[in-house]
Sequence to fold (261 residues):
Amino acid sequence: MDLNSYWQENKRFVTSVAAGAAVFFVAYLVVGGRYEGAITSKRGELARLEGDLRKSHFTAGDYDEAEAENETLQAAVSTLAKGADFEPRERFRIDRAPGAPSAGSQYLRALSEVHDTLIPRANRANMRIDPGLGMPALSPTRDDQIERYLEALDVIDTVANLAIQCNVSRVQEIAVRIDPGLSSRQGVGAIERTQIQFSFEGPAMPLTELLARTQRPPDGRALLIEDVEMLASKSKVGDARLDLTVVAARLHQPAAEAEAL
Fold:
């Protein structure tokens, strides 16, 4: 190839390429000289940080301390769960042994026993109470609902007897509300709540004593109170109204999840 002829024909192209290469080389020298130190420093810092990440930042003592703290927290969770999970008394539980009466029959028997002992006791103490005891007019038929109403009946029997001991004048109203999740597709969730609502009226001191005794009943089961309101009576000096909501709670959280906390 004749270089002279090539140069004559392509000298503008060759000149442009050479100029571009020269500019790129000069720019490379300038940028490298200006930022090479910073780049090298950052690379060193990155290498150091990667090395730190590979190292353990916790000692064996740290792990032992964390494990001990976890065991303490698990014990606290277990204690709180036992205190919150309502445990009905024996006569308010369904007997599922072979040959035992149906759940419905056991419910009616427990309701009759509570009614026949509690109402006369309240009458002798001059305490007025709803003879229906807040139970549904039509007996529940589903076993799961019967269980919840029996637990509510246990709470009602406990609170009413405490009210008699405290000389409360009137149990104005009793209402039971089963957790709506029991009959829904969504379910009850981790905590199921059966609410038992009471309205008491009478002198303020017995009502105050009743509220205190719900946390130290004779059988040792402190009742779980969800809501409480006490207002002075507008019609009689010294009297008050106490609205109290007690919850019979069921904890449905799997044991494996509780241990993982």
Q: What stands out?
A: The mean pLDDT is 82. DSSP finds six helices and five strands in the chain. Residues 3-55 form one domain.
